[in-house]
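Re: beginner question about structure tokens

> Can someone show what the tokenized structure looks like for a real chain? I only ever see the sequence side.

Sure, here's an example I had lying around. Input first:
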Amino acid sequence: YEGRGVEPSLAIQLAEQMMAHDALGAHRRDELGLADDGASQPMQAAVSSALAFAAGAILPVIAALAPRSAVL
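And the corresponding structure tokens:
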């Protein structure tokens, strides 16, 4: 908090009070810059990741399953 212009003694008090109330939330918000706005959607991320993996893996699978005469 000192880097943001808060006096050193006040910054210590502020940090102690915030850590006593919600240490994880304070760290996530102030140190990592992550807001708790509920915007994260883990299921959407998982489905998108699975689809991207399948799309990237399909061409090598097709090449491996193709008959030898079609490859040459």
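Each token stands for a local structural state, so reading them left to right follows the chain. The chain is about 70% helix and 0% strand.
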